Amino acid sequence: MENYISEIQSLFQQERLRDAGSVIKRFEEDFPEEAKENELARIIKQDLSLADQCLHLLGDMDDWTLVKQSENIATFTKGNSSDFMVRAEMTMKHSIFPILALFSECQLLNEWVPILEDAKVIGSPSKFRRLIQYFLKMPWPIENRDAVVSAVGIPIQENRSILIVLKSIDENNYLSFPIPETNSTRIDINPACLNIHQIESNEVQISLVARVDVKLALIPVAIVNYAAKHGVFYFMNAVKEMCDEYSGSKYEELVRSKPEYYQEIRRRLSTFA
Question: Both 80 and 139 in a single domain?
């Protein structure tokens, strides 16, 4: 049993979640009760299931309502109340790497994501996983919200893409990291998916789908428009602007200051060629 646990932990730290999933299946066959109680095995299975769910959501364009469209960005909404979803699609002339640099430096997100008042990194359980507390600015008369999420990047080799999966954390403790209490209303994000697909070496398509429960019995039309027109549209536009300004930016400096981390990202991206 200890060999299984050790191998799962090692694969988790390397962010080889699919390989870890295969080991977990064998662990469950040989030690079903112990596997059921193992927190790390449970989290990895949830992540793999969410990744599959995200790929399904990203591939389903039925019943989305177009809200705003520009030359390179389109935003959509679907549903209402606890099953409210937003979607955005964007193509741009950049490689994947600077986009991943933006999202790796989570502590700086509030500097360029319009809807964020602040973003705090709670912990890093593995190389490419972050536990983050977001503080969100909401339009009047809605009070501001916060969210605590686990975010992880998963390479989808067959699609030549990196899938970033976010899910809300509702436990008080997550992989030994204490989860802060909130002084506001905490929203649920289950899930949010950001897929960065390499079309050519210098062209990408970014797709975002997020299912969000903002804790309102009825979501006013103004909030729907705010989410799709302001929050999501300007988020995607900000990604493009930040990538346009990457050369000589603080992000390029941070990449140089963390050679081991970013060399591993480059190595994984090189397999898409």
Answer: yes
